[in-house]
Amino acid sequence: MKYGIAYFPNKKIQDEVNSYRKRYDSHYALIPPHLTLKDAFEADDETIKILVPELKKIANETEPFSITINKVSTFAPISNTIYLKVNPSQELQTLYDKLHSGKFSNEAVHPFVPHITLAQDLVDQEYSDVFGSLKMKRFDLADEVDRFQLLYQLDNNSWTVYETFVFGKEFI
Amino acid sequence: MKYGIAYFPNKKIQDEVNSYRKRYDSHYALIPPHLTLKDAFEADDETIKILVPELKKIANETEPFSITINKVSTFAPISNTIYLKVNPSQELQTLYDKLHSGKFSNEAVHPFVPHITLAQDLVDQEYSDVFGSLKMKRFDLADEVDRFQLLYQLDNNSWTVYETFVFGKEFI
């Protein structure tokens, strides 16, 4: 089964992000707006039984921290993805590093670029129009991260939450 | 904000359910296949802070239990909803009762009919066709319930998981 780890930002951010995703994100119906902390990875039931206590441990070691968002950015020319750029922070990087070391396959394919996707799989012309209009826009969004979620993927490519890990609140 | 409490069945059941929902359920993109344990209710942040420890307590008091599914049923003529009927059990009823008493508004509007929706908002002719073909079908599905999820609703009516409560594993 395919699993992933993500953070769902607060409702205000999700609602704003969805106002763009609805029109521009091919994955709109597959998962709520999210910040990916670990890309999709293959794991069987036995592996998950080992990883869950590890995720609890990581959650218990982590203090709630703030994230801020001020602008959009893009993965072009690698892909036509447009996203809200989450300002990098040491706390976010530390959490990401813990989810890519020890019992977790530490093959982080690319450096961590914290982001919340607004648009993907657009044709070039639409991509240029949307990015052109969003790149000048100033955002002023903030959130307090106090948890993350382990999800698995269904056959239709949508994601279901398996378990939530709340910082400092897990029983091991 | 609107909250609800649900159980997501295992991937096998979800995949089977989605094969119907994709064509017949107007809520297909809004939430994964689920068994509703508490209908949508309004709550502010303060209330949720009180309810979360209560949900942990209920989860800790509950032992994992099995559910089985053998056939579809319908809410007609009240609504054209077609669902997988989850065979009633004392464990399921007890959990439902705990989520509708004490600190929880105990206004259960209708008796608890455990179900996983396959189809809703169909026009009458389509409803008759789909129910006609499904009502003779025998299902042989089973699952082990060991958790439930507290979700909140976004402005686009989709649902995001706020927290998971695993039976016997919550730290209070």
TrEMBL record, chains A, B:
- Give the EC number(s) listed in the UniProt record: 3.1.-.-
Q: Which organism is it from?
A: Tigheibacillus jepli
InterPro entries found in the cross-reference section: 2H_phosphoesterase_YjcG-like, Cyclic_Pdiesterase, YjcG
Q: Where would I look for the motif HXTX 1 in this sequence?
A: 34-37
What's the domain of life for this entry? Bacteria
Q: Does the keyword Hydrolase apply?
A: yes
Highest lineage ranks of the organism?
A: Bacteria, Bacillati, Bacillota, Bacilli, Bacillales
Catalytic positions?
34, 115
What is the official name of this protein in its record? Putative phosphoesterase P5G51_012825
